[in-house]
Amino acid sequence: MRRIALTVNGARREAEVEPRQLLVYFLRETLGLTGTNVGCDTSSCGSCTVLLDGESVKSCTMLAVQADGGEVTTIEGLAQNGSLHAVQQAFHEAHGLQCGYCTPGMVLAAVSFLAENPSPSEDEIRLALEGNLCRCTGYHNIVKAVQMAAAV
Ligand code: FES
Ligand code: FES
Fold first, then answer.
1. Which of 92, 136, 140, 143 to mutate to test the pocket of ligand 2 (most atoms within 8 A of CB)?
2. Which among 8, 27, 57, 129 is most buried, taking Cβ atoms within 10 Å?
């Protein structure tokens, strides 16, 4: 076991983890943050996307020990003081979700992308989200939601 210390959604967390434990299972099972979903476990779908030090990462392809000392944001940490993040609000208003399974990963990928490119074209949005799959094929409204968030 290895002891890790990191910040998750603004709170310092320390835990003993197995060196082979994936970050996504640390978040879901150790910390109970089940908004981060597992769709494939093989780095294909993006439903496990979280922010690590502001950058989107697929938490099924990282070990928990690799996040040691870092700052992780999951979907549970985006809303502040009861107000949705602008990207969450835009997904709500533009109906950027159907079953919602992919939504946390989509939202966090969009947050990271918009931080780098605040005024993206539609093509740039589609390219940025190509690592996030939606089985409901709701891409059109997801792209609209990101455009809406970019306009805020
Ligand atoms: S569960 Fe991580 S990419 Fe699919
Ligand atoms: S809304 Fe269902 S998988 Fe995307």
1. 136
2. 27
Nearest to 28 by CA among 4, 55, 7, 48: 48
Is residue 74 classed exposed, middle or buried when 0-12, 13-18 and 19+ CB atoms within 10 A define those classes? buried
pTM value? 0.97
Q: Which mean pLDDT values do the consecutive 10-residue runs of the chain (152 residues) have?
A: 98 97 98 98 96 98 98 98 97 96 98 98 98 93 98 90
Tell me how crowded residue 118 is: count the other CB atoms within 10 A of its CB.
11
Q: Is 17 helix (H, G, I), strand (E, B) or coil?
A: strand
Atom of ligand 2 nearest to the CA of 98: 1
CA dihedral 15, 19, 23, 26 (to 10 degrees): -40
* Pairing label, strands 71-73, 2-8: parallel
* 3-class SS of residue 30: helix
> Cα of 35 to ligand 2 centre, how many Å?
14
Are 48 and 39 in contact by the 8 Å Cβ rule? The answer is yes
